[in-house]
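Predict structure. Chain length: 352.
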Amino acid sequence: MIRITSKSWVSRRAITGLFAAAALTVLAAGHAAAQRQLVMYCGVDEKWCRAVSNAYQKETGVQVDMTRMSAGEVYARVRAEKDNPHGDVWFGGTGDPHLQAADEGITEPYQSPMLPKLRDWAQRQAERSHNRTVGLYLGALGFGYNTEDMKKRKLTPPACWADLIKPEFKGEVQMADPNSSGTAWTMLATIIQLMGEDKGFDYLKALHKNINEYTKAGAAPALAAGQGETLIGIAFQHDVIDVAKHNKPVAVVSPCEGTGYEIGSLSLIAGAKHMDEAKKFYDWALTSDAQKIAATTGSYQIPSNPDTPVPPEAPDLSKIKLIEYDFAKYGSSATRKRLLGKWTDEVKNAPK
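Prediction complete.
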């Protein structure tokens, strides 16, 4: 123990200086730690969101503040916050809203060193957005039905989009609202690309008569079908598969006419307060180790990094009739605004 007396003014000055330096060091360290933050808006399943957040936080020490929303909700929030961004990075969710955000310049251009290592479709997503977003995973659209209820009612299981508007399925189909859900936007865009806009909207109006609920989240109809809350749920096929894996009586369908697909994406938010940390996370999220996390949480999409094992539960794309999805057109803000307005006025608000 050092004793300070009135005769030891040199020691007092030296020790006081040491205390001051130590205090400054602690404050600087605390300030640096406080700066190591990341605000993530997450558009995938909540289990995946939490697992990714926890893994990155554990690996890097960065404090991750994660908010889970549907893709359309993230897009709306990023637009609303464009003059004072609260988020740093947008992880996952269907690619169309990411492209629409890129079109409006509310996401940040960034070319990750991981980009050349990704699958072609992931790189094309970056190219069409001028590097404002990148492909993270791929998932095919479809629907699922409750096998037990279908059998009890002695109904023929639907195999095509056309089957969903049959009178026997009145009040038995569930889908999300495309205003909030990227899944439902993909469905709306898929139907128009398959049938043309006029016939596509005729179909959506006919389907409206069979809809029992437009949910907020895109995966909700798959879960509802598995739980017997609806007979049929329109969703991405990997979401239906996840429900079936939990011992729910649901079968997945790849529509016979063909179907659209998503390129789930990753974007940096323009003007982010923690941009350096956001870029580090962005690079990490494109690695094989980071992408392996998805399957551990029941998310069975095709990962964009080819070094990541494709989950055995993932839909076999070679057996699915995928359309030539026009990402440029349906990733346009003008197209989104026009078609959502038309769908809300002519379909959602129409009497049944």
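Summary: Residues 1-34 have pLDDT under 50 and may be disordered.
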